[in-house]
């Protein structure tokens, strides 16, 4: 006989919680992590809800797992994410539930927190303990007694009566606590006003979202650190989200200079015991500040007071497999649920965020000038139609002259080209065969260092052949177009004395080595840095005075309506690397279309005009944020299967007024990893319940068969 039923959500791609009987004598609460039978095995899950009932028809919960329970806010957040993205609820849970995969860490210290049972007898001493513990945080027994000004015996008594419960804590603290007053920089007038505005939002209910917009080098980091300090002072937690690569030693050192210790960091490279300890420390509230990649948004914070989304416009915030979510948008939701203030920081905010600020949904705080009277770099377009560049060369005479000048004065140069490898296309001069990926509709990119041809979509690698695989001609292969490796070759010929380094995601040695090299660049150990967008953003290289953009037009030719915005943001970021130290900086931008609005805005520095125009175009086209979009990708190993299923779906789309369904058409990359892809696009007016419509449509669709898959992407980033 049991008296309760637990609906347990299992972190697998399942859309609903399963019901289990709660055995008598197993005290369970909503949010507890439990072990339950599923088919022939036992799996972990979370009690999503508890209700009275006999449970006679159900299997029983096998037991509780010693893991931090998920708070009601956390469960609401995961429910919301699943609802918004149309992902199975269990998949959303899988992002938020991290269980130990080995033996439990040694738990030596004992923490206590409020359990709920009222004490049998209330005394003033007990009253003080209960009031303190009312915030739900885990404290050491000794700390709780001390803070409440009572003896340990009073706390023990409350544990015996079930008013407090014990929680095992890790032997050593997971992370040392940042000191909000360790060392404060003297802020400029603008910075101080901005910092006060941000810190103030932590005391508001509901806590607002603020766009912190400031040109590169204006001190956004310094400013949001003050909001972080305020969170720590209030005994709350702060999360700083960053595009993964921005988690550099440089950032961690800056944090340490301000707060005395480095923040805890969370990203895909944090594994094993360390990850487990952090997770537990975040759940208990012991860890005060986390700097992390987008996945850090799904941690079980005990008392979140602030979320900073640094470089909020970054595409890296969008997860495009599994649960398709945008971490910036989900941060705003999590902030609302936890009553945590949210700060979106950027030099080049997304149009979505700008529009939200303009409509008054977000606050808007600006830092219009670089710190310390430093000037923004002077930007000049180099018109490639006018400059003579020999075949197989990519640096214009103007750029070379500027490099000579800067290098001559011992300064650093960054050459930016957003193309990995040596050459984006390889073909045979004899038979015109183009080397294409066998699994994707994409050209193979030559990587000369590795002597191979590589697919950037699926990772397929083949050795660069000696003779053409199509016609057998020897020495007939030609590399077309430049990649960063090829630029490095040209630079080595032009400046043989100078120390150059190529940085792209192909950089051997992993993230650690990359971090070291970034630090070495900042320290002036290289003269010329040749890099992809990996080096374009967030970094502070004080000796860098010249940035050369080799091909500003790369991003502009795609059919994506966001292409202009993206390119503008990227070029603004890259050119913003120049002149962040004592000496002023400049940027030369090589382009075939100097009159293009993106290039013109960049050169004139009139970002406002560019954004106004882009926003108007979006509004007229009914594109986000003025309308809503979802993309549905149907994929299968056979082209016919994918197309047939996409057509069958389109047949039952039945769009109501305000909804348009486009397609199916071949997806922009029609073949990836051996799977053929067709796309349906849903475009709706702003007020339409997009999720409601999609759910109703999916329910009408035929079931997928075989290896056919449908992936739904609400708010796709490219379309
Ligand atoms: P942003 O994030 O806006 O690009 P940062 O916060 O990285 O700007 O600041 C740019 C540079 O200026 C950094 O080297 C930073 O240390 C320095 N800086 C900014 N504000 C101050 C300040 N108030 N005192 C001292 N240095 C500052
Ligand atoms: Zn050939
Ligand atoms: Zn491929």
TrEMBL record:
Organism domain of life: Bacteria
Domain Helicase ATP-binding, residue spans: 201-367
EC primary class: isomerase
Key words, A-Z: ATP-binding, DNA replication, DNA-binding, Helicase, Hydrolase, Isomerase, Metal-binding, Nucleotide-binding, Primosome, Zinc
Enzyme Commission no: 5.6.2.4
Catalytic activity as recorded in UniProt: Couples ATP hydrolysis with the unwinding of duplex DNA by translocating in the 3'-5' direction; ATP + H2O = ADP + phosphate + H(+)
Binding site for Zn(2+) 1: 428, 431, 468, 471
HAMAP family: PriA
Family: Belongs to the helicase family. PriA subfamily.
Assembly information from the UniProt record: Component of the replication restart primosome.
Stated name of the protein: Replication restart protein PriA
Taxonomic path: Bacteria, Pseudomonadati, Pseudomonadota, Alphaproteobacteria, Hyphomicrobiales
